Amino acid sequence: MKWKPRNLRALANIVCGNDEYFHYRSSMYITEFFEDCDLEYEHDGSTRWMWVSERLEEVLAMPQPSQTVPPDAFIRVIQRVLDKAEADDDDPDRSKALEAINVVLAREGWQAFYDENKTAQLRHIATNRIAQVANPHRPLTPSELERREQLVSYVNKCSEDELIEEVLLPLFRQLGFHRITAAGHKDKALEYGKDMWMKFTLPTQHILYFGIQVKKGKLDASGKSTSNVAGIHNQITMMLGHEIFDPEISRRVLVDHAFIVAGGEITKQARNWIGTKLDATKRSQVMFMDRDDILNLFVVTNLPLPNGALPSPSSYDDLDDDIPF
Question: Domains plus CATH for the chain?
Fold first, then answer.
């Protein structure tokens, strides 16, 4: 990422506390600020805003996961400078500080906001993507566990189409995939075993195409349920062997990888059964994503829950008529 010099200077002045609503930081506290951001920068006594501007430029030059996700260190800088603990009487909720920093961020295509945990986050304005690297294997916070339980109840009762539209589409968009198309909805011509297809742009600007086969329930390969997995195998084989039309480049392309996505568990037997039926080349193209993968990724990427997952007033027990008011 490369920012315009004037925007680097403006953000540096915010970090130094030269702007209203931000704590003033002398040389020692500037060093402490970067330590809090896990950056080993020590102020050398030179002009504060100029030195900070140079360090911010170095931070922005660090490797980034994608064009719409800045380096982790930069996200930590924004979170630190908007720390709610630094609120004062003139700006108790830090709304004025948020407004001030967003003037600078917007010029580079970003917007800061506070999430439900009162932690500052960054959003890419053009794609509406939240700038964070999702780690679905980390321990979930209590509020995240509560949201996960609400999502579990929704996935239990939703249809396959609702799983695609309300959960998978927003999830894959947030993860950086684009041109996401669902079969049977906007694109009636989609066929050959694909419920969805999408593309992902690598940092090298090369494009990978993904086909997705979605099943609402559990995928197993024992007893009668083997026929279900056999159907998935046939659809995956068709998916990998037929082209799709990409209207953005006006030509037909092959799917590079196939996702098998299930709203329930994908058992080890099912994975092994499909693996043994595919040749070595196609086996490397197939990826699995089951219920736990969907739930954890959806929660840690901080996506809004589907409407059906939110508790409604009618879901609460009626009050006892004998209770006096």
Answer: 5-130 (no CATH), 142-309 (3.40.91.30)
